[in-house]
């Protein structure tokens, strides 16, 4: 082997090593940039962003591996989407008016679940509009609708209806006309 060929080989080896070193540096920096972008998508905490990027810069692939183990599971966009989904699901359940007893959908104007007989709503003893079982005051007519007041009211309501049907309305008595006030007679 002539010294010229040996020289040439040395130059090639040096070139290859330089290229490899350049690639290693670029790869190292690329890892840091990727980590910076990734952590920024997952948190707004500046200290966490700084630490993660420093970890990738200082330890390269090992640092990134550590970061991958420790990073927040969800990106901020994923967190936002999940929050929206949960909200939509809750709204859907509310709209379905699920029976608390059997979880079947019920209608807004039902007083009792037809499947499991769980009471759902009750009519206000004053205005008759449907109100929730737990309410103590009617939001429509402001009547006191505590449980005890309501339980005493229901049979009374029925009896009142029956009595109005059976008992005829008494005819107006003759004593009524004199009861009317006559302002003309008031002396001044
Ligand atoms: Zn039910
Ligand atoms: Zn009412």
The total count of strands amounts to 2
Largest sheet: 2 strands, antiparallel
Oligomeric state of this protein: single chain
Alpha-carbon distance between the two ends = 147 Å
Keywords:
single chain; 188 residues; mainly alpha; 5 helices; 59% helix; binds zinc ion
Structure write-up:
The protein is mostly helical. Among the domains are: 3-78; 121-165, no CATH class. Helix content is 59%, strand content 3%. The chain has 5 helices and 2 strands, in the order H-H-H-E-E-H-H. It has a two-stranded antiparallel sheet with strand order 1-2. A hairpin with a 6-residue loop joins strand 1 and strand 2 (130-132). The longest helix is centred in the first third of the chain and has 40 residues, at 3-42. It starts with a helix and ends in a 9-residue tail after the last helix. The model is unreliable at 152-164 (pLDDT under 50).
Question: What's a quick, concise take on this entry?
Answer:
The protein has helices at residues 3-42, 46-70, 76-96, 147-166, 176-179, and strands spanning 121-123, 130-132.
């Amino acid at each position: 082997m002539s010294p010229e060929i040996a020289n040439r080989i040395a130059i090639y080896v040096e070139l290859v090593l330089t290229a490899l070193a350049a690639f290693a540096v670029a790869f190292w920096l690329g890892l840091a940039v990727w980590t910076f972008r990734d952590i920024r998508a997952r948190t707004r905490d500046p200290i966490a962003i700084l630490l993660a990027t420093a970890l990738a810069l200082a330890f390269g692939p090992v640092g990134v591996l550590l970061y991958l183990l420790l990073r927040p599971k969800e990106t901020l966009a994923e967190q936002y989407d999940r929050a929206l989904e949960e909200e939509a699901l809750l709204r859907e359940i509310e709209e379905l008016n699920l029976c608390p007893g059997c979880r079947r959908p019920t209608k807004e104007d039902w007083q009792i679940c037809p499947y499991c007989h769980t009471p759902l709503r009750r009519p206000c003893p004053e205005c008759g509009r449907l109100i929730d079982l737990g309410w103590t005051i009617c939001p429509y007519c402001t009547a006191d609708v505590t449980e005890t007041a309501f339980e005493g009211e229901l049979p009374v309501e029925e009896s009142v209806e029956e009595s109005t049907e059976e008992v005829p309305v008494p005819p107006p008595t003759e004593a009524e006309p004199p009861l009317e006030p006559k302002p003309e007679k008031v002396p001044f």
